[in-house]
Amino acid sequence: MDWARLKRLLRFPPTFRQNLVVLVTSLAGIILVGVFETYQHGLTATAGLTLALLAALSAATGALIYQERRSWATLRDLRETLSKIAPAYPSLVQIAPPANSTVALETEVRALTEHWREFCEHCQRVHDTEMLQAEHLATMGELAAGVAHEIRNPLAGIAGAIEIISKDFPKDHPDREILDDLRQEVRRIEKVLNDLLAYARPKAPQFGMSDLKDTVARTLQFARQQIGSKNVEFSIQIPPQLPRFRMDPEQLQQVLLNLVLNGIQAIAEEGKVSIQARVLGGPGMPGRPDYVEIGVSDTGAGISREQMEKIFRPFYTTKRGGTGLGLSLCRRIISQHGGTLAAESEIGKGSRFVIRLPMREAAEEKEMQVLGARE
């Protein structure tokens, strides 16, 4: 006797083909027994019991087939979901075509479980490494902030000495240009130190209900002083009915001024810098403001795709004399406001920075005003 063939035939759990054979045989048996017994003797108790057993066997086999197919479909859906979580981890994404055995399904599930465990361990290692780097950067930031604070005092003395020395030189003295260069370099160092201190020791926002139109007006007042010889046109598009909302006007002005100055610097000789704002309503609540979107765009040279991936990183800059902290500070300030800061750009056409800030407090204040007017 061929025992190997008998083992394959009687193995458990059965294959899809075996389940299908049992289902077809059971259904055929029900039909044959029913027809034969009815034709010969009528439907007896024994024949009824046989039909009931065959029907039960058919139902159980059909349930097994359905469950197996359903399990493969669920596993495939799980793989598709995991592909969105970990697209770069192929062992979690790849799935073999459905096999004709429940054992294959069990093997696939076990493999997925093992790969998921390995993926979690990999994520934990990456997390630990990033936390270690974050702690290292935090330590270096505190050290740099301490050094910057200590440099500011003697730097102020140097600036004062330059002013005193410059008084001894007439305006037409040839060495006065050197003093002007020294004064400019001292100011640049002061800016670097101030940016470094602001990044290492961020100031908490002082929230209050403020008007965006006033903040934008003050921003452009300072920006116009930095145009120099360039021909830059400013455009403001803010809805007059835009309500006041909760923000720190000084910090938001700092963000807008940084973005506007970046736009001016991106323009070679002639161009345009625009500030637009619009209100975005909340889902399911028409007429109720949820976010305000502020866009700062320019017609400058634009930013390449490679640079776009790095512009918000600390100390990354493409400008001569830049600190690389401006956009990092802007994103941090907007994040402290509960908002987001994103950028989009196209080479030769310019860039656009988009700020989204929540306006829930504005909606609540407006509702309180309406209730007070009714009372």
Characterise the protein shown here.
This protein has a five-stranded mixed beta sheet with strand order 2-4-5-7-6. The protein is an alpha+beta fold and 375 residues long. It has helices spanning 3-10, 16-40, 45-85, 90-93, 102-166, 176-200, 212-223, 249-266, 305-308, 326-336, 360-374, and strands at 208-210, 231-237, 245-247, 270-282, 285-298, 340-346, 350-358. Helix 7 packs across helix 8. The model is unreliable at 6-12 and 367-375 (pLDDT under 50). It is built from eleven helices and seven strands. Strand 4 and strand 5 (285-298) form a beta hairpin. It is 61% helix and 15% strand. The chain is elongated, with a radius of gyration of 36 Å.
Radius of gyration, rounded?
36 Å
Helical percentage: 55-70%
CATH topology of the largest domain: Heat Shock Protein 90
Q: What oligomeric state do the depicted chains represent?
A: single chain
Main sheet characteristics: 5 strands, mixed
Class by SSE composition: alpha+beta
Query: Could you tell me the mean pLDDT?
Result: 76
SSE order, as H and E?
Answer: HHHHHHEHEEHEEHHEEH
Shape: elongated
Which architecture of the largest domain would the CATH scheme give at its second level? 2-Layer Sandwich
Report the CATH C-level class of the largest domain. Alpha Beta
Number of helices: 11
What number of domains?
3
N-end to C-end Cα span: 98 Å
Residue windows where pLDDT falls under 50 for at least 5 positions: 6-12, 367-375
